[in-house]
Amino acid sequence: xxxxxxxxxEREHVVPSYARSPVExxxxxxxxxxxxxxxxxxxxxxxxxxxxxxxxxxRVVAAVREQAGRLMHVSxxxxxxxxxxxxxxxxxxxxxxxxxxxxxxxxxxxxxIKLVRKAHPSGDVVVVxxxxxxxxxxxxxxxxxxxxxxxxxxxxxxxxxxEPTPEALAGAVDxxxxxxxxxPIQGESGVHALSxxxxxxxxxxCDEHGAALxxxxxxxxxxxxxxxxxxxxxxxxPDAITLAxxxxxxxxxxxxxxxxxxxxxFQPGDHGSTFAGGPVIAAAALAALExxxxxxxxxxxxxxxxxxxxxxxxxxxxxxxRGRGLMLACELDIPxxxxxxxxxxxxxxxxxxxxxxxxxxxxxxxVGAREIDTALERLGAALSAxxxx
Length: 389
Ligand code: PLP
Fold this sequence. Notes:
Bound molecules: pyridoxal-5'-phosphate
Strand content: 15-25%
Mean pLDDT: 98
Largest sheet: 7 strands, mixed
CATH topology of the largest domain: Aspartate Aminotransferase, domain 2
């Protein structure tokens, strides 16, 4: 089918909830994607931080093939080995408690919200401005952005939004607080790291009042910042972490990882999902985790992140660069949407804009130095293409 035939089908049959770019991808490998005409694109977006191990990583593909040919689904009424092994690996690599599986980032937020409310009945959940935790009702209620929330009122009660400052966070937590829910590095708002002082203030306030500190690592986790979990670089350990995106190596899975003190809050019947932790996706996630949780790969994320960061600072129209590891954004003095469009159609480099003048870069963690340099050349050309002359 041609792209225009696909667009006709979309117009007629698909709810118009996405603004897609007019490109059809048919194949992916590592940091590269190919469209239906055979054109090659360098992917520095990774399906929004999902294909961190690259497209179609051979170990993920092999795990999926093997498990899909053996057993695909039995529900959580029974045991399968991949889910139990994945839970063991996730818990041992993080907070040492237990793991709840789901299918997406928004569902991981829902699980976290339900869990902290059950641990602290009727307690409020404190969130911060600029956060994004997903589109389902609980997750949306935890996402204090007027444009996303307003059309869907009334929302779930019991959320309080404050500025992500140490003072505001310290002042927001009291005996009626069930939890503080934060992204250590906000992704959708344009890669804004919360200050160490803000995270420490949230930790101290939660400890003082018996509230849970939950970090949303859906976007910044799974090696993206150069450590397996972003919290490892902050010096602040949360009581629970939400995960999704890159966890499945390209397939949909989410998880809530708890510290021991929250590990047994959910009891049979409290929460669940038919597909959660199914054997194929759990096998894929185990393979993705084995690839990612490798000291050499994580060290390279830090090194290549610095190379990309330094290269971006030298490009025309870039006024500042921020982020950690391979989760970066640059602020431009020209409109970002036009630069992203030129990068895609003229340079075959995939990026996205998170604001009017903000371009976000989320390359795969397996990227090479040459690919970083190629991306910088292509972005440089896209940035200067509008200058004329
Ligand atoms: N939390 C964060 C930090 C995210 O970036 C996202 C998605 O962008 C979500 C939650 C929601 O994840 P999903 O789209 O899988 O529901």
